[in-house]
Design brief:
With 74 residues, the chain is mainly alpha-helical. The chain has helices spanning 2-47, 49-56, 60-67. It has 3 helices and no strands.
Length: 74
């Protein structure tokens, strides 16, 4: 009986560790996806700065500052 219980505990523990790693890698993947999305949006903004400023009414200088931010900044 003790052997079966011990194996069960080890199996549950290893699933928990794997689950933790999955969560860590999922968070890392989501962070990279957000950074790629920001980079794509800022690249679009740089290429269409005047049109976006005209359409939204936002000052072009403000849009330019946003477009020139690094991809990791919000």
């Amino acid at each position: 009986m003790a052997y079966v219980t011990h194996n069960y505990d080890v199996a549950v523990g290893s699933q928990g560790e794997r689950g933790g790693l999955v969560r860590v890698f999922t968070r890392i993947g989501k962070a990279f996806a957000r950074a790629r999305q920001r980079a794509a949006e800022r690249e679009y903004l740089q290429g269409n700065l005047h049109a976006v400023a005209r359409d939204t009414g936002i000052d072009p200088a403000t849009l330019s500052r946003e477009a020139n931010k690094s991809f990791w900044r919000k």
